[in-house]
Amino acid sequence: MSSQNRFSNLGHPNRIWTVSAIHGECERLAAIHRAIYDKFSPGDRLVYTGNYLGGEQAAPVETLDELLHFRRSLMALPGIHAEDIVYLRGIQEQIWSKLLQLQFAASGIQVVEWLAARHGDMDSILRAYGSSLEEAARIAREGTMSMTRWTGALKQNIRLHPGHEKFFTVLRRAAFTTDRHSNDNYLLFVNAGFNPLLTLENQGDHFWWSSRDFNDIEKPYAPFRAVIRGYDPDRHGVHIGNATISLDGGCGHGGQLVCARLSDQGDVQELLGA
């Protein structure tokens, strides 16, 4: 696979620990981390599937600090390497990256109004870094110069928290394993969905916006045996199908944070919930 800056090649892992959408539930995340830490071994991989910070009971700054702390804790173990831990870009992170470039939008106020109507959980992220959707709407009405100053101030506030700015630069669109024997691609990890009619390189925004009918896909998405996602915007719960696995337990919306331990062939060996 090419485009290493977009996709993460997990190689031939022994097991893959896959964490569903977190939505700012720091205490649930810490509980999952404790469970993983006791069982994580050299040769394993840890994949977070995006949508980290915003939610109904979100603690965005604390959640991101917990993610960074656990990364350091795992890497302190013998035989664990930085590339063993992968963070995917979720819908929230994609929107956040666009919000930080609001001054370049054709209509900033339309963008903010759309966010308020469709993705109100972004307000919790904005508030964590010193703003709000309400303020964003006011700034957008003032014009390009005000929006430029506003996004600049947001970026400066992010830099006040060690590791936060860097975190948003290392997110990958998807991750995949390679088969131990044939070296063919085997498992694909995404945020919310994909378009089975397009190649991996041509998915574009489909990783975030093609979630409909994911659980109904029966035919494997060649050359992958299974596609695993961590976020279901329709909140249908955990689903293990013939060609897809959906792990969203509703964390951030009254449900559980889920972590699945998968074999190198995509079999669910264990489901952890917090």
Describe the 3D structure.
The protein contains nine helices and eleven strands. The protein folds into two domains: 7-87 and 171-273, 4-Layer Sandwich (Purple Acid Phosphatase, chain A, domain 2), CATH 3.60.21.10; 93-159, no CATH class. The chain has helices at residues 26-37, 60-75, 91-99, 108-118, 122-128, 133-142, 144-159, 164-167, 206-209, and strands at residues 7-9, 15-19, 45-48, 85-87, 174-178, 185-190, 226-229, 239-240, 244-246, 258-263, 268-273. It is α/β, with parallel strands linked by helices and 274 residues long. It has a six-stranded mixed β-sheet with strand order 1-5-6-7-9-8, with no helix packed on it.
What brief labels describe this structure?
274 residues; 17% strand; alpha/beta; 11 strands; five-stranded mixed sheet; six-stranded mixed sheet; single chain
The total count of strands amounts to 11
Largest sheet: 6 strands, mixed
- Placed side by side, the strands forming the largest sheet appear as 1-5-6-7-9-8
> How much strand content do the residues show?
15-25%
Basic shape? globular
Low-confidence stretches: none
Contiguous helical run count: 9
Give the name of the CATH architecture of the largest domain: 4-Layer Sandwich
Output the CATH class name of the largest domain: Alpha Beta
Q: How are the elements arranged and paired?
A:
Blueprint: E1 7-9, E2 15-19, H1 26-37, E3 45-48, H2 60-75, E4 85-87, H3 91-99, H4 108-118, H5 122-128, H6 133-142, H7 144-159, H8 164-167, E5 174-178, E6 185-190, H9 206-209, E7 226-229, E8 239-240, E9 244-246, E10 258-263, E11 268-273
Parallel strand pairs: 1-5, 2-3, 3-4, 6-7, 7-9
Antiparallel strand pairs: 2-10, 5-6, 8-9, 10-11
Helix pairs in contact: 1-2, 4-6, 6-7
